[in-house]
Specification:
Blueprint lengths: L9 H12 L2 H12 L4 H29 L3 H8 L7 H32 L10 H9 L2 H20 L1 H29 L5 H8 L8 H14 L6 H6 L8 H29 L14 H7 L4 H32 L6 H20 L9 E2 L2 E2 H28 L2 H8 L3 H28 L1
Length: 441
């Protein structure tokens, strides 16, 4: 296995893994989830759930990947021969392909908005941004071209390999993402009335402290760490056996929480300062943000920075999704990465065409009352990911002997016992509750 590609440095792995977790979930979904669920209380519960539920499952995925040193399917086969645990890898393969098929559509929307921002056609014209958003996502030519461009960007990074592609891209994109966020944060909090947005995020309204908010925060924490689709198992398979997976997982969780909070600090002060409501829902980024920046001095420049930042975050997640598929497609081979990248990226692009057209010429095509885009989102996020994380947690908790898992854990006995309790009992129960809620809500 010595010929298998590996991350060149610990920081490279942490940035790549954090990039996988920090995508649209942190920058797009977290602000609107917090905005519609009471702000500060939701954020507080999100942090607790990330630390006490999401982080232990992330450690479990790192453990499985680093111990196996193979793609997810072969890793489970090697560690549990003659048992069906390898189906977790197949589930991850299908889930990653489906997620990327509609994720690339959103990536295309971002490219469309970035092009308009750079050409200065988003500010100073009194546009109806809700109408513009509808116009963009219903234009079949534009959405397909933008989706294809985003997939091309993703595959060019993945085909270059771990050291030359994914690690290099993450080392550039993640620090720039932080820098851009800090610039936008400084601009946002200097607006008159911005303090109301800060209060919304940090002064609790305890009326939102209920079971519904807890479940939503748990779901956000769970999905924002990218657990359940074998992405973190795949990345950890490129780690040397000497790497401390507990500290790496902790750093990834901290970065994920930090970016999520920064996203809120960029958006909510500006939203309150300009008299908008935080309860805008999923259209917050594509409809609200251009409307907000249009009213700011140098708004056009900050809008370009924002969509570059969003593109970075989306790309670091998309390369992780494609890497899972390419890794499984290559299997135990160390050659053929370029061919596998182009093959699977093309297949995923084709699978994503119905999602791209879901708000245009295929808007009347529905499954279970949902258009194709929403159905693919529902199937992966509400069913596949929870099942994958549940099985992963049970595998790490019960298949490994205590001796093996403690050797892999490489931390204090107290932390190990706490982790084992969570992955065996607490996390599975929490995941089952989330799964039931999503399926039967």
């Amino acid at each position: 296995m010595s010929s298998r590609d590996q991350f060149a440095s610990k920081i490279g792995f942490i940035l790549a893994a954090a990039g996988s977790a920090i995508g649209l979930g942190a920058i797009w979904k977290f602000p609107y989830m917090a905005g519609t669920n009471g702000g500060s209380v939701f954020i507080f519960l999100f942090i607790l759930c990330t630390v006490f539920i999401g982080l232990p499952i992330l450690i479990a995925e790192f453990m499985i990947g680093r111990r196996g040193q193979l793609d997810p399917i072969n890793s489970f086969k090697a560690q549990a021969p003659s048992k069906p645990w390898y189906m977790i890898g197949w589930l991850g393969l299908i889930a990653c392909g489906l997620i990327l098929s509609f994720y690339s559509v959103v990536g295309g929307w971002i490219l469309s908005y970035l092009f308009r921002a750079v050409s200065m056609s988003l500010t100073g014209q009194g546009l109806d941004f809700a109408a513009l958003f509808g116009e963009i996502i219903s234009n079949p030519v534009e959405v397909l071209m933008a989706q294809g461009a985003f997939m091309l960007l993703t595959l060019l990074i993945v085909q270059a390999g771990i050291k030359g592609g994914i690690e290099v891209a993450s080392k550039w994109m993640m620090p720039l993402l932080f820098i851009f966020f800090i610039l936008l944060f400084i601009r946002s909090i200097t607006l008159d009335g911005a303090m109301e947005g800060i209060k919304f995020m940090f002064v609790p309204d305890w009326s939102y402290l209920n079971a519904k908010t807890l479940l939503l925060a748990l779901g956000q924490a769970f999905f924002s760490l990218s657990v359940g689709v074998s992405a973190m198992i795949t990345y950890a398979s490129y780690l040397p056996r000497t790497e401390n997976i507990v500290s790496s997982a902790r750093n990834v969780a901290i970065m994920n929480i930090g970016i999520s909070i920064l996203a809120g600090l960029v958006i909510f002060p500006a939203v309150f300062a300009l008299g908008y409501s935080p309860e805008q829902g999923p259209g917050l980024v594509f409809i609200m943000i251009p409307a907000v920046f249009e009213q700011l001095p140098m708004g056009g420049l900050f809008l370009i920075i924002f969509f570059i930042l969003l593109l970075f975050a989306t790309t670091t997640s998309s390369i992780a999704l494609l890497e899972v598929v390419v890794s499984i497609g290559m299997g135990k081979k160390t050659q053929g990465r370029k061919r596998a990248s182009w093959l699977f990226a093309t297949i995923i692009f084709i699978v994503g065409i119905p999602s791209a057209l879901s708000y245009g010429i295929m808007s009347d095509f529905t499954i279970m009352g949902k258009n194709f885009f929403d159905f693919a989102d529902y199937l992966t996020n509400s069913i596949m990911m929870p099942i994958g994380a549940l099985l992963t947690s049970l595998f790490a908790g019960f298949h490994y002997s205590k001796k093996i898992s403690q050797e892999e854990f490489q931390s204090s006995p107290f932390l190990f016992k706490t982790w084992l309790l969570i992955v065996r009992y607490i996390a599975p129960i929490a995941i089952i509750v989330i799964l039931i809620r999503h399926v039967f809500a």
